[in-house]
């Protein structure tokens, strides 16, 4: 196929070539252009080539296009991604009834729908024919293109998609050459589908399709075509789904029975499918996320096929499914931090729930060593697995095998013997089995009953070594059953070793930037000096790449997958679905609820002192008549002395001591109702932030991330700076920040600069910033002072003349001038200045410096869901600062996605159902949703409530019988018609619920909590699933 462009309006044409048409593909074109004024919405048409006027088009590239990967918005422009170079790897299963051929991608190009700036029209200057296949070329168009080429080459811009091009052109992406087979799914999964579903390109394993984010709009466009058009689009093979990983195969001759003397032709194939849901590079992506997706997750399938049977054996690998990471500069000693040791179990169990649902049973093989950092991960892994046994029973189990110790003891040769002798391994090889199918009928004869899940630290070298052994052992079992003499075929095992060595190299290059270690042994079965030297070189290269190059690569990966917080997915113009989406957002309250939670935020400058015998209860539980907080956000400054040694290498032990002190205080409190766990903690030299939550909330708090930003010595030193922790509590996001800003009475501008450095440069994963969150709370030693002389400030403070003091408060002045903390609020300050005291006393500083009393310790907040209930200080005297605390009542949004899907289907049905004579365009044009048009009941007062009336005593409403409801005329096209089959359902379905709700008065939320609440709506039955969500 070829790619053409025309201007005014700018359009790209992806058209079938004459050669493709001779082979049976339809004469069709896929036409793309940007919607007017939009960089994230495209207009796409699937047309016959004969219906397009190509006289004003030119060939955009001389390269033959292999397929389209999708649409992506980058740098305020929209780009079409196409494959411009790929080679055929081979037929992975020649014995199948139709070919299952794989191609490897070597080059991907991005062409803009919104601008000609990035066009590569140099190749178009060689008088390429237009799709009309005539010899004439539009001379004027060619001259214009040459002028554009000269201008753009002079500018020498870097293409906005250059990082994406580099990743996608790395030779690690593959796609199926035939549209009717699914490369993303293992053999047993494909054969278990019915014939129609098996050939549908929209049926795939979403875990392994890497361009799902950018191709989704085109797949939705395809689904909206009628059946005949959809078949034509599939036959054109414009849409390509790609996976990342490795595909390799060899064809070989094996001895056959002495019937005719001709050998059996067999094919051995290895396919590794890398998951994208927690994709990234070695030091940037570790462990698990809250949805149970783990880093470097790979499904590897060994296929062995002859004209009689086909054998399939599947294994998986993946990072240890706990919350752990490696921050800072990493060399050859791995500094591992388990970030949420007490809150990992829900995500751990989600991960294994996904695996058992997909593969039935899972036996984990942990290859970490029993020394130093790896031992801590192994111990945590074992603890979580022991708890998970209560959930999964015998479906999930684990074997711990210290790979490095085994190599030290007996060399690499001993690994094979030791693994096969382990009872837990050999028993599970027999129990889990393999898949075998009949080559002529594709009938499954026996199916694999579970998988081995192997891991080391990176899930690369050691893991690949062991998976090679498990694959060979299982293949030997199969060959023993079907043709025993093939187990002694040297060429087969030579190819098997080569495939696994190449597989190890490919996966290692993706995750770590170099080939795998130990592959010399995998290839030859021997450990050689050349192999040892090669491994040493690779280790040095990895250290450099992972520390200095991988961050940019991680950003490019996140951009391609749509993970960046400020990204907008490209949609294809569709007035019906666009209107439904808009109205869904307006009707959020109909498919979501809110609940309240209590948040405690506290900040304390510790002056480098360890915990004393002084109780923390007056600070952490200042009021006895309020609910226990759901979340504690505790910020410390100067948790360690700010000396050169600590700045160069911070000691985390002081933070751990304070964590233990806080947990002990929480455990010893009177009338204890809930258990608390540390959700996350993070430290930057002397600044530390600790988040604790009720243990029962760990399953609904997700996407917890921590980060830091230095501001000392112009960003080079961590003696000053900020620590941030963000999270999602159900569907509401929070960002907590503790900071220590520049010191010095007159250094106001430096403090302002520190604030802006933090706001602009503090980044969480996937591009999230402080501004990305619904609610933000600062709890910090801001170091802003009071602009009064010492004697006046002390007199005013001791006489509690706080208004006069606040008039001279630097932070208030800065906020009024909008020089910092713009849009943030602070509660009324009704307490004396918190700085600076003589330690252990209530006396302000009596040292030689005689510091002026000031409110350096502050809590500021921003967010519509936050309601401040308390802002005060606690009288703890073990530091020269007094701790400050604030208590917030926060509103948490909980979206019911099942209800949302039901409402979406109702709206879609209402819009698409047109009455005789009714024009759909007019109906779409009238789509509105106005709350102010709805009749509201009289407002409630202290004496009466709108829901408590003579007609409805105590808020009791009679049951509404939809079968006798009078017909209702409505100008709202989103109201479900009374004759709709959904509305006519006699059960309490979502449709009936919405129909009933429209008959009632619109509720208003009461403001007083002492009154009886309004009655709850009837419970919904399971919603209809006849239409998909939009």
UniProtKB/TrEMBL annotation:
Q: Where is the SAC domain?
A: 164-513
| Single annotated GO MF | phosphatidylinositol-4,5-bisphosphate 5-phosphatase activity
Q: Where is the composition biased (Polar residues)?
A: 1021-1030
Q: Which organism is it from?
A: Neolentinus lepideus HHB14362 ss-1
Please give the name of this protein. Answer: phosphoinositide 5-phosphatase
Q: Where is the composition biased (Low complexity)?
A: 975-988
Region Disordered: which residues? 957-1030
Compartment annotation: Cytoplasm
Pfam families per the UniProt record, alphabetical = Exo_endo_phos2 (PF22669), Syja_N (PF02383)
What keywords appear on the UniProt entry? Cytoplasm, Hydrolase, Protein transport, Transport
What EC numbers are recorded for this enzyme? Answer: 3.1.3.36
